[in-house]
Design a protein that fits this description.
four-stranded parallel sheet; alpha/beta; 177 residues; 8 strands; four-stranded mixed sheet
Length: 177
């Protein structure tokens, strides 16, 4: 992976509720604006998506991202989110069914990535872990999701999932749109 990469999370293509919460009248307008912003990523770049390209509209979202990938000659990496049918939390059958389709768009799919930024060890993930005295509790963090969020000991965590501008702790960076 290049030392320089672009990061995004929680695109939610085709998701009516998220489109409305973001101030759009319909999903077509929402999706067009999100894609237009993604087109600002330089040609030939690495784009790391930290989860939730859609909610139950995987094929549609993958089609949109596939066009973008070809248009921009992107290398695309994915950390599956809690809405991806390729995430292990959906079980073997779902992962087996959806992995080939996701691999048509994403060059690498992994539950997390660790990157080094100068002297910091940075965790790139979808679901953050809220712990310690500085933690801000995530109301969306159910016990089922918490099982997937138990990564500790990093200097910084870059994540999506929360749809909030408030970091989970001072060592977190939220990339949700």
């Amino acid at each position: 992976m290049s030392d320089l990469f672009w990061t995004v999370s929680d695109l939610h293509f085709g998701h009516r509720l998220v489109a409305e919460l973001r101030g759009f009248t319909d999903t077509d307008e929402h999706d067009r604006v999100v894609l237009d912003h993604l087109r600002e990523v330089p040609d030939g770049s690495v784009l790391l998506c930290l989860g939730d390209i859609s909610v139950r509209k995987d094929a549609y979202a993958l089609d949109q991202l596939g066009v973008l990938k070809a248009e921009k000659d992107l290398t695309m990496w994915l950390v599956p989110g809690n809405h991806h049918r390729v995430h292990p939390m959906f079980g073997w059958d779902s992962v087996a069914e959806w992995t080939p389709r996701y691999r048509e768009v994403f060059d690498v799919i992994a539950l997390d990535f660790q990157v080094r930024v100068r002297h910091w060890q940075v965790l790139m993930t979808h679901i953050p872990r809220a712990s310690g005295k500085d933690a801000v509790q995530d109301p969306r963090q159910t016990p089922k999701l918490a099982r997937w969020a138990g990564r500790e000991g990093f200097d910084c965590t870059v994540h999506g999932h929360t749809h909030s501008s408030v970091p989970v702790t001072r060592k977190h960076v939220v990339k949700s749109l």
